[in-house]
């Protein structure tokens, strides 16, 4: 999957660079008026009329490849592997059983869980200062 994504991205970058180059060397629609008054359009690489067909068709092909690569990258970017089971099966998974409330100062601190009964695990110590905002303001 990752190799395909890298390949599509490389093709998209190359077609983008090719389109930029081809668009920059093409003449605009107003360039034909200058050719009527002696501008050097007839001395171009592909002749007076051959460059418009070749360059515009090549640009159209590169634009099509760029568009297809963009759609492929959008598809692969939103692709998720299918998961087994339904949404209802995953929602009905049993919830963890609530732990009994512990007594003592650690149980009174909001946002902490009860200390574990595993030996070697010490419960966190309660703060020495009160948790009010007035106690945290330094005095002079």
Summarize the structure.
The chain is mainly α and 140 residues long. 46% of the residues lie in helices and 0% in strands.
Walk me through this protein's architecture.
- By secondary structure, the protein is mostly helical.
- It has a domain of 59 residues.
- It contains 4 helices and no strands.
- α1 runs antiparallel to α3.
- The two termini are 65 Å apart.
- The model has no long low-confidence stretch (mean pLDDT 74).
- One of its GO terms (cellular component) is plasma membrane.
- This is Protein-export membrane protein SecG.
- Its main location: membrane.
The major pleated sheet works out as:
none
- Nearest-angstrom radius of gyration? 35 Å
Helix residue percentage: 40-55%
Output the structural class: mainly alpha
Given the C-alpha coordinates, what overall shape results? elongated
Low-confidence parts: none
In whole angstroms, how far apart are the ends? 65 Å
Q: DSSP helix count?
A: 4
SSE arrangement:
Blueprint: H1 2-25, H2 31-36, H3 50-78, H4 87-91
Region (Disordered): 97-140
Function: Involved in protein export. Participates in an early event of protein translocation.
Subcellular location: Cell membrane
Features:
elongated, transport, protein transport, single chain, about 140 residues, cell membrane
């Amino acid at each position: 999957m990752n190799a395909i994504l890298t390949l599509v991205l490389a093709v998209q970058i190359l077609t983008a660079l090719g389109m930029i180059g081809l668009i920059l060397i093409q003449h605009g629609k107003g360039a034909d008026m200058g050719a009527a008054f002696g501008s050097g359009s007839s001395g171009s690489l592909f002749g007076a009329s051959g460059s418009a067909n070749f360059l515009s068709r090549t640009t159209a092909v590169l634009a099509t490849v760029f568009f297809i690569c963009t759609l492929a990258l959008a598809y692969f970017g939103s692709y998720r592997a299918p998961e087994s089971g339904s949404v209802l099966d995953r929602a009905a998974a049993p919830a963890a059983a609530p732990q009994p409330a512990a007594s003592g100062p650690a149980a009174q601190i909001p946002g902490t869980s009860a200390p574990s009964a595993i030996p070697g695990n010490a419960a966190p110590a309660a703060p020495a200062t009160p948790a009010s905002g007035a106690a945290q303001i330094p005095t002079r």
